Structures are given as C-alpha cells and as structure tokens.
Amino acid sequence: MSGQNSVVAIASGIFQVAGQIARLSSVGAYFDRLFKGNTRKVLRSEAFHATIINNTADGIVAIDENGIIQVFNPAATRMFGYEEREILGQSISVLLPVHERETHDGYIANTNLHAPRILGNQRELTGLRKDGTDIPLEISISAMETRDGRMFIGVCHDTTERQEAKTALQDSQKVLQLRVLELEDAQARLELQGSELVALADNLHTTTQQAELANRSKSEFLANMSHELRTPLNAVLGFSELIQSEIFGPLGNDRYREYAGDIKDAGQHLLDLINDILDLSKIEAGGEELIEEAIEVPKTVQAVMTLVKGRADKNSIRLTLDIPDRLPMLRGDQRKLKQILVNLLSNGIKFTEAQGSVTLKIWCTSNSGYIFQVTDTGIGMFQEDIPKALKPFGQIDSKLSRKYEGTGLGLPLTKHLVEIHGGSLDLQSERGVGTTVTIRFPAQLIVEPTELQAKSARQLSG
C-alpha cells in the first residue's frame, strides 16, 4: 500500500466515524463540520490529511485485517511510548495487557470475524504502555476498504484524568458514606442519651418534689412541736422562778432554791433551742418576713451586750465593744439584728475558756457596707470543719465544744437571718487560736441623715 493511498484511505475512514468520535476530541467535531462541506476537495489534499492525523490530540492506530499496525500517529507515540518506526508492523496485541487480549472485544485475533462486535460505538479498555504500565482508554473503531484490503482505524482517548476523578469521587463517596454511618450512629447514641436524660430528669424532678415535700413536712413538724413544747416549758420556767423567789414562803433548805435555779436555767436553755428550731423552720419554709425600720445601731448593740454580759462574767471572759462615736442608722429588722448579734456573741463566749476574750467590732463605709465582726480567743476549728459548722445541726467534735449542749443551729440560723437582709456571713477560724465571724450588710441598707430628714418631712406633710 502506497503512502499516499494509506493516508488518504485513513483520512477517509476518520471522516466516516467523525460523528462517533466527536465527544473524544476537538478534531472529531472539526471533522464533523468539515464533512458537511466540500469533502471531495478536502480529500484531494494529501498534505492537509497528513496534518490532521499528525496534529490531532487523540491517538490514531490503524491495523490491517491481521491485526498488524499500519499507522501510528504522534499522539499515539506520546500515549503509548513507542516510536512509529518500532511499532509499525507489530501486532496490536503489544498495546494490550494480557487480560485485555483474551477477554475484551477490542482484541482482533481475526479482525474480520470480530468486526461486527468492535465497530461503531465507543468503548472503554485498558492499554499497555511501552514501560509496562496500564493506561485507561476510550476507543472508537471504524472500518474502510482500500486497494490493499480492509483496514480498521482506532481513535484512542486517554481517560486517566477522568478515571482519577472517578476514583476520587468514589473515595469521597465512601468517606461520605462512612461519615453518614458515623453520624447515624452518633445520632442513635444521642437519642439514647436523650431518652436517658429525660428519664433521669423525670426521676430527679420526682425526687426533688419528694425531698421538698419531706423538707416541708419536717419544717411543719418542727414548728408544731416547737409550739407544743413551748407551753409546758413556760409553765416549768414560771413555777421554777416562783419557787426560787420563795413567794409563798421559805423552802426550808437552800438546796431546793439551788435546784429551782437549775430547773430554770435548763428550761431556759431548752426554750432557746426550741426557738432556734422554730426560727429555722420558718426560714426554710419561706415564712420568715422582715419588719424593716431605721435601726439605731449603738443603742441596739448596747442592749445586746447587756444580755450576754452576765454569761461572759460567769465564765470569766472579757467582753469588749469596739464601735465608732458616730454611726449612721441601718435599715433592717431590729429583732433579727439582735438575734444575730446574740447568737454570735453567745457562741464566742460558749467556746472560749476562762480568761479569754470576745470582741464585737463595728464599722461602716459606702464601699464595704455595714460590718459587724465578732472575734474570740476560743478553741477555734480546722478549716475543713467550717462548712459543717454552717450547716443545720452540725457539731464539731471536741470535749470543749460539748461543754454546753446544743443543736448546732446558732451559726446556720444567723447566716439565714443575714442573707434575708441581702448580706453575707464569713467565718475564719484556726484551731487553738480562735474564730472571727464577719457580718456584712449591703451599703444600700445604710440610712443617711438626709434620707431620715426626707422621711420625717413626708410624715409631717402627711
């Protein structure tokens, strides 16, 4: 077959399948447009045909009826790695991996026999480069008649990038599916945890309600019992005082008078405990109300000091008051303020040994508020015992702390009374050194003289 005939024949075959390979390369689209024009004139130009074959981006491989390569364009050289001089005359099988030679429709052991199956539509197959690596291809094969016999032309397109993109897409889909499975698993776990949390919340709500009911019942019981115990205690105190004072005549023995005094002291101590329990029950039940007024602090403090002085003298404890000459008034509940100070001073006296001291210091500033501070030189406590001392019925174990029996309500009750005023209680203590309790009332409770004058003016105008 002459060179001119081969080139012209191959170009003619390409034109015949140009519509089929239009998707494979820009040359195919060009051929398709060209074929609609003056094709005969184009076919007369051998140079033009050779230019098209040599410059197309897709590989063109032409074989004869025996599968022997007759044409191998530059694009095929770049694609497969073979030079034209070393591949022409070789079997097409050198460009196919073993598995493709035996199984793919593209293998042409007898080209004419397989022609009906391999002509026409595009198909995918794997090619084999000179260096032994595979190359994914999309190929379209057409047949044509020449003076030397029938020839088959394959237009090959390298689909490596497409395959890589496809593989990347598949990998991404697998990763996405894995993430979806993980999310579904996480969602299932969250739904399970949500159900457990709902059940836990329901149980907690039920438990809280039961605890609140139990606490309310306890407070009501304590309040009722306190009222019931007060009546006979008042009788015990009253009669013991009558006996001690010998209103209806002498007792005849001094011991009876002493015993009457002991009965009165024990009864008074028990009544104090009952009052503490009753007050704490009211606070916990939310029934404690403040009766606010402008309190003259120095006057109130002097009354408190008088109440506790007898106990301090009896225990040989020095009681000291550190107070400025002038102090503004404090807006609050006067009875509760007295109770706070009595509780703190009594506690200090109770846990301080003979020859010790208890000091009440008071000061006031617009920044810190109204401060009451009680310091004693008593037994003190360890830092870890402070939270326990501030809880209702909390008792710090020690021989001296049990010198006077009590319910452990003094500090918790005092803390509650301060807090309902909007204040705070701070307790600092060191074992064997002493304790300092600081009460802070907020600055907005300080009653300035101008405020009192305005109040008096309103009362007069009313």
Can you characterise this structure?
With 462 residues, this protein is of the alpha+beta class. It has 3 domains: 3-158, Beta-Lactamase, CATH 3.30.450.20; 165-283, Helix Hairpins (Orthogonal Bundle), CATH 1.10.287; 291-450, 2-Layer Sandwich (Heat Shock Protein 90). It is built from 15 helices and 13 strands. Strand 3 (123-128) and strand 4 form a beta hairpin. Helix 1 (3-16) crosses helix 4 and helix 12 (334-350) packs antiparallel against helix 14 (410-419). The protein starts with a helix and ends with a helix. Residues 1-44, 105-110 and 451-462 have low confidence and may be disordered.
Structural descriptors:
462 residues; alpha+beta; Beta-Lactamase; Helix Hairpins; Heat Shock Protein 90; five-stranded mixed β-sheet; 15 helices; 13 strands; 53% helix; rod-shaped; disordered N terminus; disordered C terminus
Task: Name the CATH superfamily classification of the largest domain.
Answer: Histidine kinase-like ATPase, C-terminal domain
Name the strands of the widest sheet in spatial order.
2-1-5-4-3
Number of domain units: 3
Helix content: 40-55%
What structural class do the secondary elements suggest? alpha+beta
Distance between the termini: 133 Å
Strand tally is: 13
Low-confidence stretches: 1-44, 105-110, 451-462
Largest sheet: 5 strands, antiparallel
Shape: rod-shaped
What amount of the residues lies in strands? 15-25%
The number of helices is 15
Radius of gyration, whole Å = 54 Å
Return the CATH topology of the largest domain. Answer: Heat Shock Protein 90
Give the second-level CATH assignment, the architecture of the largest domain: 2-Layer Sandwich
CATH class of the largest domain: Alpha Beta
Quick check: average pLDDT?
77
Q: Which H/E pattern describes the elements?
A: HHHHEEHHHHEEEHHEHEEHEEHHEEEH
